[in-house]
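Exam review. A common question shows you a sequence with its structure tokens and asks you to describe the fold in words. Practice with the pair below. Do the first one on your own.
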Amino acid sequence: MSVSATEGVSPFALASSTTTSTSTSSSSDDKQMFLELMVAQLRYQDPLNPTDSSEFLAQSAQFSALEAMQDVADQTALLATSQLAFGATAMIGKTVRWNDEDGVEQTGTVQGTTFTATGPVLSVDGQEVSLFGVTSVGDAPTITAGTSTSTSTSTTDSTSTSDSTTA
């Protein structure tokens, strides 16, 4: 008996409760099917040529390892989803840049976030912008061709007066 490879896990697919319950029931169905197949193999084995018990133990260990790897993948996907959610909420009040559908760079301030099946969506000055479309956060200096930036300092001499009274 061989166990097929598992499919990839999307961090946003696990965010919805319906997908999680389907994934959990599918996992328990797979385990039940494996156990039923193993019992059927034991029941219908050739009595003159019995199956080696170490083969069953190896299959059981492989299935357990596969189950553990799937759990790790699911937990990693949930962790990535929560990190994206915290990252998106941390952008509220920040200035972001992104390219719109026409490829024109836009700038705006993030007012809020919405979490969809495809990932976090930022509400920027009334527009919906995917977190993955953001190119920069914060005010980056804009330098146009032919201009240079220089820093100048000036000092001013000011005199302050204070009145003092003695009693």
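Now try the second one, then compare your answer with the model answer below.
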Amino acid sequence: MTSLEQTARTGTSRGVGVLLVGVALALWIAFGRFLFGAGGELTVAYLLIGVLVLVLHIFISRALARTAKRGFTVRPSTRGTLIGAWGCGILLGLTIPDITADGMQTIVSGTQQPALDVAIGIANPAGIVMAALTIIALVLASQDANGPRPSEDEDF
């Protein structure tokens, strides 16, 4: 097995790993509240967010696999951005509100005030930052798949 074949195999497994994390994150955002008895009427709306997360992760995983297949490396900024997006996605799943028989509630606060208002106040920025970081990770992963930019040799 050549080094390029081994790198491609590792890259494919990384791509699959990113895809699995994307599936888990999408399920967490869309349905995680049901694990804690806080699921309700807004599930369909949050399912759309989950689908967006999943689609973006499909493209990211393909770009990571292409990067390894071509023999290039994934930059630390790509990994860091993706991990940051995952952290914000987990936070979003914990703080996203839903309407239940008891009223509006989140996983971390239940229906208790003022914790409910604080959780809702955290959910919106967490979702926006998660979406932005995921899109940035996709752009960076796509650039990684194209290889390093050629540098110009400058004569001094």
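Model answer, second protein: The radius of gyration is 19 Å. The mean pLDDT is 88. Full marks require stating both points clearly.
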